[in-house]
């Protein structure tokens, strides 16, 4: 459970870090506009402040790890972090049947910060930890419903047995999925110290 929470925190941290940087850029742009004689310019986008962002309707974000079968006698960790392939397929079908549309982080960002429109019933489908079956089963099932996912990879595991290969990650990216950072080696963020 701790691991799940830390994964969520890493994800949020990466997204919020990105927001902060973009906010700063947007603020600078606004200042430039104020101080210069406005020619025929595109209207500058003004970023929502934190209160406005928090007041917006939330978008569900699903977080998957392992996709494989396991027995009833499997340990608590396995049961927490693993979804059976048949269940994963059912969940994707249920989302599609209910009219959900998958979105990517940039869309969520533009919605939260710039009030851009999202498709009806948006959902973000994410995968942590670079597991190989996220490509062979996860992406394959999502494709049936035209869903795109976000794959948070830890780079140290790329090309290792049972983990995504660099070719698979490139194919995921080329197919319109999002590829994001899940740190180099999945060190517990709460245990960072010094130069970490
Ligand atoms: Zn993780």
Labels describing this entry:
binds zinc ion, TIM Barrel, two-stranded parallel ribbon, 196 residues, 7 strands
Tell me about this structure.
Helix 4 runs parallel beside helix 6. 46% of the residues lie in helices and 13% in strands. Strand 5, helix 6 and strand 6 (149-153) form a beta-alpha-beta unit. The strands form two sheets. Strands 1, 4, 5, 6 and 7 form a five-stranded parallel beta sheet that branches. It has a two-stranded parallel sheet with strand order 2-3. By secondary structure, it is an alpha/beta fold. It has one domain (2-191): TIM Barrel (Alpha-Beta Barrel). It has helices at residues 2-35, 50-55, 76-81, 85-97, 105-114, 133-144, 166-174; strands at 61-64, 66-67, 82-83, 101-102, 122-128, 149-153, 178-181. The structure holds zinc ion. Zinc ion (ZN) binds at residues 7, 128-129, 182, 186. Zinc ion (ZN) binds next to loops.
In short:
By secondary structure, the chain is an alpha/beta fold. Helices cover 46% and strands 13% of the residues.
